[in-house]
Fold this sequence. Notes:
About 30% of the residues lie in helices and about 30% in strands. The chain is α+β, with helices and mostly antiparallel strands. It is built from 15 helices and 29 strands. Mean pLDDT is about 90; it is low at about 705-735.
Amino acid sequence: MFFKDFKTFETTIAGRPFKAELGKMAQLAGGACLVRYGETEILCTATMSDKPREGVDFFPLSVDFEEKLYSVGKIPGSFQRREGRASEKAQLASRVIDRPIRPLFPKDMRNDVSVVATVMSVDPDCAPEITAMLGVSIAISVSEIPWDGPIAGVQVGLVDGELVVNPDEKQRETSDLQLTVASTGDLVAMIEAGANEVDNETMFNAIMLAHEENTKLVAFIESIKAEVGKEKIDFPSNDPDPDMYEAVKAFAIESVRFALDTDDKRIRDERLRPVYDSVHEKFDPVYPDMGFKLEECLYKLQKYVVRRWLLDDGKRVDGRGIDDIRPLNSEIDLLSRVHGSGMFTRGQTQVLTVTTLGTMSDAQMLDGIDSEDSKRYMHHYNFPSYSVGETRPPRGPGRREIGHGALAERALLPVIPSVEEFPYSIRLVSEVLSSNGSTSQGAICGSTLSLMAAGVPIKAPVAGISCGLITEGDRFMTMVDIQGVEDFHGDMDFKVAGTHKGITAIQMDLKVRGLTPAIIREALDKTLKARIFILDEVMLPVISEPRKELSKYAPKMLTIKINPEKIGDVIGKQGKVIQKICAECNCKIDVEEDGTVFISALDIDDATRAYTIIETIANDPEIGAFYKGVVTRLMDFGAFVEIAPGKEGLVHISRLDIRRVDSVESVVSVGDEVVVKVQEIDDQGRLNLSRRDALIELDGLTPENEISDAPRRAPRRDNDRDRRGGGGGNRNFNNRR
């Protein structure tokens, strides 16, 4: 055989075959495998540089999930017809893989490591993110790269009240839970979830079910590693010399304690600057050209102080109790002309979210490897440098910003009304004004306020909170609402969002190998109590429910469902009919393939008029119905009135007014708006209309009480339609008699 080292390993996951093929593809990579789950096939590689990167104080790991549109038989929609920048979903998949594998690399290693998962074929029933996570774990495990793995991951759904491992595409469509869990052989390493208000107990059981499945897969990967894995290489440690650290610790520990002991991030940073200066002044001559190592010593010293306070003294840097939340504040209506705004402040973390409502044509078009091709609800998160007191030029969103925006979007998605209930595209933009921990959860709280202020009928308010962790051997402690320094020096950021009823989103970041069930349960319990407090005591007193009216600056929307066969009549040849309606009614109209028509205008009267016109075009006029029309032509024997584009009828001179009419011109002129009643539809479909009957029946006019020869026009009486959508079933502008 040409590939003499080629080997295949097989197992089953959720009843579907999983295969790992090694030794055929990408043989020059440090570790490589082609993994096949069902018909999802992904090439995973892991490669490490020969030498450490100079001058860095972090482990340089890059994880890339590459979507290839050929994997689903698509040609990219870009001008070049090739894949460009990674989509948001690809970047989110990269983060999901990165989070469980990163803590398992040696923290003192500075060699670049590149992990790439290239999606080559997609089976909708077998999620590519999970397949890639398993493939990456295999590739790193069999490589020479030092790593304390392997890990494994599965998804769990909640279908008809039952927990399902790795649900297929059909099950995912109806699932109330989208949970991804990664594990080592004994601990939970990563949790990511979106849920339709799932209670804590169900969520905990789902996490434990996933962990149980993961332990079996870890054993499978261990067997691959034992058979074909390479020997792990040694690397030069980048840890500071222990004697250097002890010298810095003895010199600066009291100054560091004083600097950290404040609830104000600005004061803390100001106090630390002279500490850094004094350490460099004393030790630079002792350790020449080792300035970056001295700064690592100071980082380790701060971490030591914070963790000892928490574990030994139960003390937090800002003086709070372990389960106390920082001072909170909620506000709405901060900006005058936007459709909705809300600001949430927690300590020195402050996020302002703005809601914008648009038509359905404003929905985002997607060009990816899954079945979703558009979305009407979008959440964007911006993190400017001034929010942390730094100066750097603004650039496009990075993976962190995209990840935080996606988390907030996922947390609120279960409460967003359906398009039938609220026919708008919705864009939320969360601007981080100040950051000192848990800005993503502040974005969730601010977004709830903004949506309710905008009049979006969300099903329930959502709040978010984070829980931190400090571990030492078998000891652990959790604390709610972690600020930046606790996140920086702690072991976990366990973010949970939800309503009173249940959880809507989870994202867990770890710096240790994993969590025990006891830690997970405690974190779920603490975040539940905290988010209920935030909802009841801080957010709902400001605005208790969504407003009934939209902003005057927001578009007003009506929807109508027509026979799809009538779409051509509404649009007209080369779009002339729909363009005419938009121009006359100062509105925007979107028509879906199923016959759903969305009409938007700043003035509800304009939208209602367009609604009536479209309804008239899409439905044949009825005898006895009333319509508002426009006089188009005058003849000796009467006037022609267009009641809708392409639908014109004759008002005979005898039916033009309640009095005798000697000349048509004395009553109406071309361009006049008049109300008419359909009197007759002849065998050829021609309309005979009556203005006389409309005047009598709608206004109760008679020749005896009429005193003017001027044209008589019935006042407009619009149907009472909900401006958020729908509308009455009448095809005329006012109620039929």
